[in-house]
């Protein structure tokens, strides 16, 4: 569910890698990383990842966090607080002191999907959290365990129709993008597969690799190495275009399901009430961290796209994504107790 402006398409139909920097963000970059430390409120920056270790958000946050610590000249501590599809960890960020010393690193689900699925949402992401920046845009890929014996999306659909309710799909938890993707696949293909929620994409991936669940809609950053090693089979990219890292994998539309389109993204937020000047300085530091050679190379290698939007841009993006998720959740009829 990434906006069109976060993507560029090459003549061959494969996405170009580029760091999307708005003019407002560029204007802020007159301050160096060394100067960024002179307004830092303490010696440690705490970033809460509201999902279990080992997933795509955890890995990306630690990669960016290491570079961010160098930019700010401070210690960055990443803490995993899994539960309720990311809602539990972000609730902790909501309650933190709004001085810029605690941030949340979230995927799309807890910020823009959960409010429209959960019956007892403990906070309003658009009111109780301050947008900092979208970090990366991440394509989603439908993958299956080799034991299924299928190598195409059509074959998976045929197998699911032949045995309704037998195949299981894992997700990072209720109200996450992989959950929404699995439900969308069910509707578009007209199949009955069973959702198995986990406390993050890492545990879900472990069970998928072990064959405990048969399939998953996943961030490309999480499953690409396992596809390359033959431990998983990629059936389709759930987006409008193929990705360079998986040149032989068709889009869902090319594989016969044009309505199966969904994507993910990672973003950083702060407690509501965090001073705008502090958010601006933190966004500047994240943008600089994303330009670090080792970070840019890793993001490109993993098939993601760096974004580094300003707080205002990310706020507008969150509102648009929330509205889009609300419409999709309503169409799918998903509820989460």
Helix-strand blueprint:
Blueprint: H1 23-28, H2 33-36, E1 44-49, H3 56-72, E2 75-80, H4 87-94, E3 102-107, H5 108-113, H6 125-128, E4 129-144, H7 153-162, E5 168-171, H8 177-189, E6 194-197, H9 201-209, E7 215-219, H10 220-228, E8 233-237, E9 263-271, H11 276-291, H12 293-302, E10 305-306, H13 311-332
Parallel strand pairs: 1-2, 1-3, 5-6, 5-7
Antiparallel strand pairs: 3-9, 4-7, 4-8, 4-9, 4-10
Helix pairs in contact: 3-11
Offer a quick outline of the entry:
With 337 residues, the chain is α/β, with parallel strands linked by helices.
Which class do the helix and strand fractions yield?
alpha/beta
Number of strands: 10
* Rg calculated over all Cα atoms: 19 Å
Going by CATH, the homologous superfamily of the largest domain would be Bordetella uptake gene, domain 1
| Sheet with most strands | 10 strands, mixed
- The outline comes out as globular
In helices, the fraction of residues equals 25-40%
Assigned CATH class of the largest domain: Alpha Beta
**How far from one another are the termini?**
24 Å
How much of the sequence is in beta strands?
15-25%
Number of helical elements: 13
Mean pLDDT reading: 88
**How many independent structural domains?**
2
Poorly predicted runs: 1-38
Indicate the CATH architecture of the largest domain.
3-Layer(aba) Sandwich
The CATH topology assignment of the largest domain is D-Maltodextrin-Binding Protein, domain 2
- SSE string, helices as H and strands as E: HHEHEHEHHEHEHEHEHEEHHEH
